[in-house]
Target: DNA polymerase-3 subunit delta
Amino acid sequence: MSPRATATLFGHAEAEASLARAFHSGRLAHAWLFCGPPGIGKATLAWRFARWVLAGGPHAKPPLHVPPEDVVFRRVAAGAHADVLELAPQAEPGKRRIIKVEEVRAARHFLALTAAEGGWRVVLVDGAEAMEAASANTILKTLEEPPPRTVLILVTDAPGRLLPTIRSRCRRLDLFPLEEGDMAACLASLLPETSEADRAALMELAEGAPGRALELAEGQGVELAKLARAVLESLPDAAGAHALADRIAGRDAALAFPAFFALLVRQLTQSVREAARGGAMPGWLATRPLAAWAEAASALTRQAQEAERLSLDRRQAVLVAMETLRGR
Model:
């Protein structure tokens, strides 16, 4: 389910309360910057806040709650509410995902209009770090001269990639990975048919990010994590590398390929970090200097990103990754 249509938010109670207090104080900031790691619920909170503002900011428990049967909820979920607009990065083959200046200009015009329903107007920018330079400069004009009764919500995993002038004109709200109890409740609710053992494994892999856990569950993340660990413990020979490439770049590659690389890099970097702190060092890690393994992790990340962005042969990318791990 998309964040736009998600009714329940797990964790982030203090963030919700802070937003509700700001609204009811009568001094609501016109621009907000929601920051935090991927998959922890930033977009879900942003849409929850947007719905609640459009509904008039009703007093509710939990804060920001708008029932799914409410007409505002249903219209926002269906993309049919006239007073809310979303901007998000668009992908083109062979190009990086960006938010184009034409879209931001349209949003600027949208905010300048009178609210169709006499209340607030909301623009939600998901993946704000993907704005191209012209887009960032255009949105800055709105931040400098905000129309009345408008809210601009910027959602980002990488606030450092935004212009300092944009950051300085937004009220920043930092979100953090969910606590174990909230994660357990979230996965029990969203993955009721998954075994308790697999949910526990997903919790460990996702590190407090429900969105990440759901991606891993959909892409057989628990099995891929075991496979990534096995690859590091015993680097496959040429035949094994080809078999691995066939498996990772097969018919489910859209999910398996990025998940496998992410889990492989995660296992590698965690092992390097633990060893650098004087912790246990697995046998495979002792075969090369830690700096070399750190460089390999960076190379693997770069290879996976390039393969996805440029639509390269995923099978070949897996084979190259195995050569990287061998130090060749």
The radius of gyration is 22 Å. The chain has two domains: 3-174, 219-325. The CA atoms of residues 54 and 119 lie 7 Å apart. The beta strands are 31-35, 84-87, 121-126, 150-156, 171-174.
